[in-house]
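Homework-ish question, so no full write-ups if that breaks the rules, but can someone show me the predicted structure for this set?
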Amino acid sequence: MTAYLPIFIHLLLAVLLTAALLGAHALLGGRRPTVAKDEPYESGVWPIGSARERIPIRYYLIAMLFILFDIEAVFLYPWAVAFRDLGVVGLVEMLVFLGVLFVGFVYAWQRRALEWE
Amino acid sequence: MQVGLNHYLAVSALLFGLGLYGILTRRNAVAILMGIELMLNAANINLVAFNRYVAPGALAGHVFALIIITLAACEAAVGLALVLAVYRNLETIHVDEINVMKW
Amino acid sequence: MPPASDLALLVPELWLAALGLVLLGVDLFVGEQNKRTVGWVAVGGLLLALVPTWGLAGAVHRPGTTVFFGSYAVDGFAVFFKFLAIIATTLVILASMDYFRASGDRQGSTQRFEGEFYTLLVFTGLGLVLMAASADLILVALSIEFVSLTSYVLAAYLKGNPKSNEAGLKYFLFGAAASAVMFYGFSLLYGLTGSTSLYVIAEKVATVPAPALTVSLALMLAGFGFKISMVPFHQWTPDVYEGAPTPVAAFLSVGSKAAGFAVLLRVVAVAIAPSGLDYVTLIAGLSAVSMFVGNLLALPQRNIKRMLAYSSISHAGFILIGVAAFGGAFGNTGLLIYLFAYMFFTLGAFFIAALIEARLGSDDIPDYAGLSQRAPGLAFLMALFMLSLTGIPPTAGFFAKFYIFAAAIERSPALLWLVAVGVVNSVISLYYYVNVIRTMYLLPPQDPARIQEPAVLRTALWVTGAATLLLGLYPQPLITFARAAALLLP
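A: Not a homework solution, just the prediction itself:
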């Protein structure tokens, strides 16, 4: 446990310091709000509309397809690392894998799942 | 003291418990899905930790974890699609309000 | 590198995978009015898949044979389930084609994405084949999840129907939670033994402390129990069966259950049994509870699909007797025979429910009144399936139950109570099965108009009906095959 003592002290100090600074500010500092100070960007560009706007459902549809095709990359990385050891057989296997994915992609494309409108 | 297998197992058990708690208490279907993801990641932590400490010779645990990550993504995609379909017809994703069928 | 000869042993799987991909292409090129073409291509492809599977039937003499570094079994057990999965998928696709057409006629609309439905069924069939042959925890996880994901979509297939939506979402939430628990159990088993191969685990499992192994087994049972709809993981069954399209309910009740039992048996018998852990008592208890819960809750049901769902839960209990009796001379054989026979009469009962639903738009048992006058053939077949589900001779159901009870008694006198529970439950089930027969034959019809029977669905029905009778009257070939296929260990 002793090996972790410095880290523990560090964490404790960080928490204490933050609490002290914020507390001092709350106790000693004045508070005079104005309209300009309450803006999200006091001296920047004016925000356009609310940040809590609803996102069109199409984003989710595209996102779902993206997840499916994106996650297959986790299999490409280990294959790339071991590429030399696996040789031609590994290459063929990966091509088959990508071929299957490609059929799925073509199907989604032809079904107009990728079209925005 | 070194961080050992037991620490990883404790974290994973905690994560599993949190996920299970989420599944059992949440009403929102998407929140339940998040609980399921937590449980899957608990299994992943276990697998990678066991691979490192119990069977460092082979990579079975790592491969298993990669497969589960992929399965989690597929599950999320299918699950969200189902939630969308339900929302279009029933206009709710709270599981206690989805009760067309009763026994 | 695995030798290329391994691929020769995988021809049925490769064929099914290729068939699924081809179907996706066919679906794109076929017009909206001719989607049945996709169904016919699927049926043709599935029947052709029986040829290489038959070629592998010699595998029954080589128990314990595996390919790809011991991760995939090509033993008789796997071949048996290949046959079962392919036959079940074919029959379900045949039934679906007329189900959609008849529903469309009644509602005056066509079903969208019908081609996708057949493709998903073929992929699910492939998943079932993979499940039954997986001999490695990674592959078990992958194939179970493969079947689950396609099944979720199939259950929610009627997109505009709130019941189907609800069925899909409930099935998904239960299923995903059950698999997550199961994966955690897998990770523990891997940690305890240091291997994911079931056959390597079997060598090391004796040194594992019993409490840890029990926890791991309990977690894994959540996933398997969900697939076979065993109590206490059965809550999804009635709602999903009622809401899903009826052919899908039939498929879940037969295909997923059979493959779930295959996985359960392979994991328990191969990997857990050598540890000396007393899993028999646990399984026997779950079996008894499943039978009682399923049968007692089936009694008050009015909806035929809900009734069949609870009946499916109780049959899971009956089949679990076979798992409990595994160590004996006939336990495994009894289980295989039961699953094979169960496939035909359950599919048949669901197909008739599908036809009635498509024609009358109702799932209620009282609407079956006078079916013997409106459609004598259908009423006769339904009566046959109901008798078989109860287990009355000379049907396949009687023979299956008889064999599995005998296996339990032969295994150990300690299982005698379980057989007694089974017999009591058969008597309870008589009440609600015979109620259907009574409604069809004794009550007057509300509407005397005859019910049209679509040709393809009728073919599927007569195949299941003939098999139900034939397996009851002349079971010898099935016994021979199941006995040969039952050996799991070298």
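Now go work out the reasoning yourself. Hint: The two ends of chain A are 60 Å apart (CA to CA).
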